[in-house]
């Protein structure tokens, strides 16, 4: 991923938090038929390694797990907050008109070798972890154990698990760090006036970012 120095985010707690808050990732691999991508929620675990471990599962009918190219890492792309930035929000628009639109966004790329897992015990533990995480905010969290045992057992036969031990972790926070203070303030004001959750989130990211970094 191309990352200008002022857009680079390397703090592991920040990268890990982003992956946890935006778990739906595009998992990209290279196989005999070329590149293939699957959009699936991943579970991030701190396993004592430098960058951590990703766990996920796909349908057994999905060909992606069958023939990943040997020696080629899988890539998981996590997309965070993003928003269009209008040139109307910059003071320079009124001064000389020399402004153009851009798009702000936050992304994390995690890559490493793809390990296929088919053991039922691993798959069940993974599904428990995945659902427990995303049901935690519910007043009455659904549990895998709420479904009949034979029903879950039959579903396990239709999926394949995988792990990606993260060997490379990159973060790109493109949130107006390259603009001057007046432009950043203009973007924050413009986003805030939209009165949308997406606008508020991006305005906060611009306000918190270190200019020029």
Strand-helix topology:
Layout: E1 8-9, H1 12-21, E2 24-31, E3 34-41, E4 43-45, E5 53-59, E6 74-85, H2 92-95, E7 102-112, E8 115-117, H3 120-135, H4 149-156, E9 159-165, E10 168-174, H5 181-193, H6 197-208
How would you describe this structure to a colleague?
The chain is an alpha+beta fold and 213 residues long. The chain has one domain (5-207): Roll (Pnp Oxidase, Chain A). 30% of the residues lie in helices and 32% in strands. The chain is built from six helices and ten strands. The chain has helices at residues 12-21, 92-95, 120-135, 149-156, 181-193, 197-208; strands at residues 8-9, 24-31, 34-41, 43-45, 53-59, 74-85, 102-112, 115-117, 159-165, 168-174. The strands form two sheets. A six-stranded antiparallel β-sheet has the order 1-10-7-6-2-3, covered by helices on one side. Strands 4-5-9-8 form a four-stranded antiparallel β-sheet. A hairpin with a 7-residue loop joins strand 4 and strand 5 (53-59). The chain is elongated and about 70 Å long. The model has no long low-confidence stretch (mean pLDDT 95).
């Amino acid at each position: 991923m191309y990352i200008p120095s002022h857009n680079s985010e390397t703090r592991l707690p920040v990268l890990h938090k982003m992956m946890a808050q935006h778990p739906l990732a595009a998992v990209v691999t290279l196989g005999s038929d070329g590149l293939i991508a699957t959009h699936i929620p991943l579970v991030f675990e701190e396993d004592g390694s430098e960058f951590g471990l990703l766990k996920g599962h796909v349908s057994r009918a999905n060909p992606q797990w069958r023939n990943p190219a040997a020696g080629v890492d899988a890539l998981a792309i996590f997309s965070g907050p993003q928003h269009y930035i209008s040139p109307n929000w910059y003071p320079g628009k009124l001064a000389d008109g020399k402004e153009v639109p851009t798009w702000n966004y936050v992304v994390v790329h995690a890559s490493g070798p793809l390990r296929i897992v088919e053991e039922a015990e691993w798959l069940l533990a993974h599904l428990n972890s995945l659902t427990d995480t995303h049901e935690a905010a519910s007043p009455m969290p659904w549990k895998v154990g709420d479904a009949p045992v034979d029903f879950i057992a039959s579903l396990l036969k239709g999926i394949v698990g995988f792990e990606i031990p993260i060997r490379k972790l990159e973060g790109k926070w493109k949130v107006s760090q390259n603009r001057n203070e007046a432009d950043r303030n203009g973007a924050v004001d413009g986003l805030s006036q939209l009165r949308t959750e997406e606008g508020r989130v991006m305005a906060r990211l611009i306000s918190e970012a270190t200019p020029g970094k």
